[in-house]
Amino acid sequence: MTIDPAVLAAPGFGAHFTDHMVLVDFSEQSGWHGRRVVPYGPLPMDPAATALQYGQEIFEGLKVYRHRDGHLRLFRPDMNARRFAASAARLALPAVPAGLFVESIRQLALVDAAWVSDRPGVSLYVRPFVIGTEALLGVRPARHATYGVIASPAGSYFGDTETGISLWLSQNHSRAGAGGTGAAKCGGNYAAALVAQTEAKAHGCQQVLFTDAATRTWVEEAGSMNIFFVFADGTLVTPPLNGAILAGVTRDSVIELARDRGQRVEERPISITEWKEAAATGELTEVFAAGTAAVITPIAALVTDDTVIETRASGSPSTAQQLRDELTGIQHGTIPDRRGWLLDLGPAPR
Ligand SMILES: *Cc1c(COP(=O)(O)O)cnc(C)c1O
């Protein structure tokens, strides 16, 4: 298929799909088998499949970058593979071995390499997923599953975000509770968050912020992004991985980059009250969100029922901007990768 150059130049996020996909079958008897690259298209499925009836589905999200040497590279895919296995365990799905995970992504990236732009800020977002495919209305884990990988050219997630986005504080809806699936990357979490996301949009906000389900006191995350706070003394604070928060690869990378820059990073509970008070005194200088899709995005305001808490970075460039430049520099190959974070998928034709 010929690729529209206008799409590749400004692909937005998740709206266009490449020409192929990878599929692999699982059965209890045969394990993972039948890996194949096929044209992108609909999946025939039994209407009683557990993925459709009971939401037995997990996914991952990572990006392929085209470097100046013509090679395609992945950023820390080992972390995605580990998290995919942990999500599988939580949703009672078979885990995809790390080798199969990386190999299937490599195969798709190379066959659809023409979709990987080397423009700054543009990459190929890869979406691996596993669905329970056994036809079954009785409730138990499926004995048949399908692992798939699709890909979509990715530019800016929010459009223009120089000045930051605003978050809506969800007061009635929770994303995850104790013992729930908050730490798993599964479609069900997103289904549960859609109504809160719609509420956020209705209040003029781009995203929703979730607090803990039990007390609605503590900041958790934004539903597809982890949250960081920057204090006047340079300290970064981010909520701890308490089982309800998704352990972001971007979150982990930001923590390491900030520490290497000599900044203190605290993983500790932070409340809406502390956010409000520290913003008022000027002690809190920045808030930003971190995730593969949105990279690092400043949060300019938290909007609640009765107030708007604004944070505008005073320094220039802001901490968020400096971390974003360093992270994307490593990812796109313009800053040396001293930590062995990149995996070379090999040379690829344009
Ligand atoms: C994927 C995801 C994130 C971000 O994780 P990254 O590995 O940094 O992309 C944060 N929260 C949720 C709920 C997610 O699904």
From TrEMBL:
It comes from the Bacteria. GO terms for biological process: isoleucine biosynthetic process; L-leucine biosynthetic process; L-valine biosynthetic process. It holds the Pfam family Aminotran_4. GO terms for molecular function: branched-chain-amino-acid transaminase activity. Its cofactor is pyridoxal 5'-phosphate. The modification N6-(pyridoxal phosphate)lysine is found at residue 185. Pathway: Amino-acid biosynthesis; L-leucine biosynthesis; L-leucine from 3-methyl-2-oxobutanoate: step 4/4; Amino-acid biosynthesis; L-isoleucine biosynthesis; L-isoleucine from 2-oxobutanoate: step 4/4; Amino-acid biosynthesis; L-valine biosynthesis; L-valine from pyruvate: step 4/4. The keyword tRNA-binding does not apply. This is Branched-chain-amino-acid aminotransferase. Its EC number is 2.6.1.42. Belongs to the class-IV pyridoxal-phosphate-dependent aminotransferase family. It catalyses: L-leucine + 2-oxoglutarate = 4-methyl-2-oxopentanoate + L-glutamate; L-isoleucine + 2-oxoglutarate = (S)-3-methyl-2-oxopentanoate + L-glutamate; L-valine + 2-oxoglutarate = 3-methyl-2-oxobutanoate + L-glutamate. CDD domains: BCAT_beta_family. It comes from Mycolicibacterium poriferae. It is an enzyme of class 2 (transferase). Keywords: Amino-acid biosynthesis, Aminotransferase, Branched-chain amino acid biosynthesis, Pyridoxal phosphate, Transferase. InterPro entries: Aminotrans_IV, Aminotrans_IV_CS, Aminotransferase-like, B_amino_transII, BCAT-like_C, BCAT-like_N, BCAT_family. Signal peptide: none annotated. The keyword Transferase applies.
